[in-house]
């Protein structure tokens, strides 16, 4: 008997969805930083065993859109409600359970199993956790509730066991040696973007997109050329920094992370270009892969 299915991870920004995804898959598939809106795409990570295949899907945090990019991000999250065999709704011990009730109502109407994960339980005590469980039970009465700590791997094995029980009998959807549905170039742009999220303040990381112009894998080295797009000339100056110092730091840290990710030497060139208002241009968003279809 072989089981397979799509297990989609949804929830509000900054509750630990990407950290959870990486723990479940056992690889660093999703970038995870302390900043909200880190995940912009729907990213699949595939777990294979002889008797099963779980296709996990990390999605952007659910938010009310202010511009076209956020509309695409919300569409990725909502698409995860339509094709799940099991839905993981992630919250944490500090979030207001009644945030984004519209999305919660859609989750409540789902006919597939929903597991509600209360993350970061290491930041709470037993009594408070009991109150949180009670509140969530009243909001999503059909959901199973599991307290976890994704960062500390607490509850992850129990969650995987439960997912296996809920999966339908089905042949695998992907090759058994496949880890994700995304190409190598996607992870290059995500890793560079992660470094920008870590090293720059305020609005800068949210005005940035990264496109890989060339990716050439040779026997001993991968040669990559990437462009960081910003919306204004002033942002370009901040990304480059005094005498190019800031860009050099991002480039060096990205190269180290890429070498670890690909397991071989990487030669990375990074350029910065201005593309005014790309976050509101349907054509540009499409070229950056933000079409949820």
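^ structure tokens above, recovered residues below v
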């Amino acid at each position: 008997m072989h089981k397979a299915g799509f297990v989609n991870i949804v929830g509000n920004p900054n509750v630990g969805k990407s950290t959870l995804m990486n723990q479940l898959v056992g690889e660093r598939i999703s970038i995870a930083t302390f900043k909200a809106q880190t995940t912009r795409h729907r990213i699949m990570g595939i777990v294979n065993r002889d008797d099963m295949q779980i296709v996990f899907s990390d999605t952007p945090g659910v938010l009310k859109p202010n511009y076209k990019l956020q509309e695409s991000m919300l569409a990725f999250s909502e698409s995860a409600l339509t094709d799940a065999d099991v839905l993981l709704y992630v919250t944490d011990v500090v979030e207001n359970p009644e945030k984004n009730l519209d999305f919660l109502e859609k989750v409540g109407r789902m006919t597939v199993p929903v597991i509600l994960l209360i993350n970061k339980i290491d930041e709470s005590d037993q009594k408070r956790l009991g109150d949180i469980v009670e509140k969530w039970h009243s909001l999503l009465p059909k959901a199973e509730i599991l307290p976890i700590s994704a960062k500390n791997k607490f509850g992850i094995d129990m969650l995987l066991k439960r997912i296996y029980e809920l999966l339908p009998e089905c042949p695998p959807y992907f090759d058994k040696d496949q880890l994700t549905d995304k190409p190598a170039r996607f992870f290059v742009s995500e890793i560079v973007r992660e470094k920008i999220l870590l090293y720059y303040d305020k609005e800068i990381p949210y005005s940035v997109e990264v496109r890989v112009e060339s990716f050439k894998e040779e026997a001993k080295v991968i040669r990559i050329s990437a462009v960081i797009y910003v919306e204004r000339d002033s942002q370009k100056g901040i990304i480059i920094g005094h005498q190019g110092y800031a860009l050099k730091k991002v480039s060096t840290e990205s190269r180290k992370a890429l070498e670890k990710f690909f397991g071989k030497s990487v030669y990375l060139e990074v350029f910065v270009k201005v593309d005014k208002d790309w976050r509101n241009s349907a054509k540009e968003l499409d070229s950056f892969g933000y079409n949820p279809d």
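The two ends are 32 Å apart (CA to CA).
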